[in-house]
Amino acid sequence: MNAISKLAIVPFVSVDHMMKLVLKIGVEKFLTDLSTYIEEDFRRWESFDKTPRVASHSDEGVIELMPTSDGTLYGFKYVNGHPKNTKDGRQTVTAFGVLSDVGNGYPMLLTEMTILTALRTAATSAVAAKYLAPKEADTMAIIGNGAQAEFQAMAFKAILGVNKLRLYDIDASATQKCIRNLTGLGFQMTACASGQEAVEGAHIITTVTADKQYATILTDNMVGSGVHINAVGGDCPGKTELHQDILTRSDIFVEYPPQTRIEGEIQQLAPDYPVNELWEVIAGQRSGRRDGRQITLFDSVGFAIEDFSALRYVRDQLPGTGLYEELDLLADPDEPRDLFGMLLRCEKAIAAA
Q1: pLDDT (tens digit per residue) in 89-139
Q2: Which end of the chain is more exposed for a tag (fewer CB within 10 A), N or C?
């Protein structure tokens, strides 16, 4: 059989290779460098195609496609969110992504994005907090200590210097898992018996729970002045974590309003309720935190441009590492118009073998 054409090959980063790439670079450096890519792309936000993610909802969860392009590169992510999966030993969220050349339409990268999404979500949270959190912040409450919790902790430590964690989960074993995983990594950690206890003394409150239902994780009386709320959660229509009164007391910052109004905390508010776009803050067009008493809220739902940034970053790190496979993904006949002939030549090669 003929040798595989170079034009047929697409670099593929498996889960194993992604883990090794992250460890080769270092988790904190990976998060810090990735945050730089995210900020770069937020500053040129207006140059991107933007659309709410294409979602297929069911009683069990959601499957989504998240596309965007800057006119030179095109990227998309396939991602699901199925909270009941953990009962079957499966992940709540899994993902993969593609980066392509707009000029010829050929994919340039295919990669796992389950681990990468966890990293980009945490990096985006920390980027937002860089502009919105109190300057002296060193203590964060994390309510919901599942798969995302350690990534959030590592990003806030690497990018903002947050090193004190107050942890709470309705499943105490999740909190113990989180403490076990982060031991020795420079944190002071407190396991808390309730969400109320967790937020006491915290400058930043991160909510990152998964159940796809209206559930009040933070009540109004739990949130005092001067804090930054990083509302991550497993967002979708019908999924909220914050009491509505917290929203009306806060200055709200979002990624892409048409998407956030569908599935973020602000789905509880009127469709025209005023919000701030994070990219404008990062680009210097709008102020973030103004004073010490202000309550800031990043209503984070995740947006395709953040995945685009993550795909760009991984692409740039791969050369020379060997941490990818050469995937024979694209048909490349000797004559571009003779795709059927390629099939016939394969048949002859099989017969001759």
Answers
A1: 998 889 999 999 999 999 999 999 999 999 999 999 999 999 999 998 999
A2: C
Digit-coded pLDDT (tens) for 278-314:
999 999 999 999 999 999 999 999 999 999 999 999 9
Report how far residue 148's alpha carbon sits from residue 156's, in angstroms, rounded to the nearest whole number.
13
R_g of the chain, CA atoms, integer Å: 22
| Superfamily covering domain 122-302 | NAD(P)-binding Rossmann-like Domain (3.40.50.720)
CA dist 180 and 193 (Å) reads 17
pLDDT at residue 330 in the model? 95
6-115+306-352 carries CATH number 3.40.50.10330:
no
State how far the Cα of 208 lies from the Cα of 167, in Å rounded to an integer. 11
What does DSSP say about strands 73-81 and 95-101: parallel, antiparallel, or unpaired?
antiparallel
Query: What is the DSSP annotation of 279-345?
Result: HHHHTTSS----STT--EEEE----HHHHHHHHHHHHHH-TTT--SEEEE-S---SSTT-HHHHHHH
**Res 2: pLDDT:** 54
Nearest to 37 by CA among 122, 124, 164: 124
> What gap in Å lies between CA 147 and CA 178, rounded to an integer?
9
Q: Is the dihedral of CA 297, 303, 307, 310 positive or negative?
A: negative
Q: What are the extents of the domains in the chain?
A: 6-115+306-352, 122-302
H/E stretch holding 75 reads: strand 73-81
For residue 169, what is the enclosing H or E element? none
Q: Which residue has the tokens 């795709």?
A: 339
Catalytic residue from among 41, 169, 235, 299: 235
How far, in Å, CA of 160 to CA of 167, rounded?
18
Q: Are 94 and 80 in contact (CB under 8 A)?
A: yes
**pTM score:** 0.94
Q: In what order do the strands lie in the sheet with 251-254?
A: 188-191, 164-168, 139-143, 204-207, 228-231, 296-299, 251-254, 276-277
**Mean pLDDT score, 39-53:** 97
| 235 part of the active site | yes
